[in-house]
Amino acid sequence: MKINITKTQSPKEKPQGSLGFGRSFTDHMFIMNYTEGQGWHDARIVPYGNMEFSPASSVLHYGQETFEGMKAYRSNGKYYLFRPEENAKRSNYSNARTCIPEFPEEDYVQAVKTLVKLDADWIPEGKDSSLYIRPFFIANDPFVGVAISKTYLFIIILCPAGAYFGSLNPVGIRVEDEYVRAVRGGTGRAKTGGNYAASMAALARAQEEGCAQAMWLDGIERKYIEEVGTMNIFFKIDGKIVTPALNESILSGITRDSIITLCKDFGLTVEERPITIDELVDAAGRGTLQEAFGTGTAVVISPVNKLRYKNKDIIIGTGETGETSRKLYETLTAIQRGEAEDKFGWCVEI
Ligand code: COI
Question: DSSP string covering 198-244, please?
Fold first, then answer.
């Protein structure tokens, strides 16, 4: 794929001090168009900036869009991406579910690599820091009728990022037992904005009750654990690592998959199976709910110290970050930063 590059004439100041997540952006962005009959065309990198859309652009009305989250790291003067081909593959799964045209996986990885290389001096140093990469597809027909768009944009933006919730700071999670995120046959397994729009009311309730995110139960029986706001969820119960088995309403997390691999490598038993909220309440009562943690690209590992369910707090383990959560975080981030052996071949040099 040929990518035209127009470099910025006025590079921005890089953020100083604590980076936070997702509020500052690098100097450039990647854009490519799709037009029915012509396919994907005009791959280009241009200075980062606001874009002009018709107010009728279909994504603004019906949310036909998909996105990904990836990270780039700096290590010994080299730059690495973590499992980028998995994002390219998942992106095409999400696109197929939302009728967005397929995008060639090698071109996807090439676009990310080219943009990150150009803005590589934005990749922050530091243990909890990385360059967060947000590739996304949007439908762009200027048409207010409900229809499958004939034109799309593929855009990639980059944000220097620190820890999402603060490094390994345990968070409280509210179990949402009224609203649901996804149902059988819905878009739960696709990474599409509508799933997140549907989550805001539950997030607001969680925050009102002092929690960081909401944990979703299944949409039919309101009984099985699915996932948490921005992450997949794991529990350590009686020494075993347990996580909900994937189904069509759970996002197939790349970090989730990496953590399962690492847990098995540590010699831990991992069970991917249905988990009910009652099982967690019982385990907490018996003192066997030892740890809980979320996994995701943005959060990496986010220890959970409390589940708030039906106005009661269930304290997990000692209420502090657990030893397995900490070991997984240290191991995964060391692999990502090139400080530990990459024995699973996850890091791709740019
Ligand atoms: C990610 O972890 O990359 C996500 O996409 C979650 C989120 C920030 C929406």
Answer: TTHHHHHHHHHTT-SEEEEEPTTTS-BEEEETTBEEEEEETTEEEEP
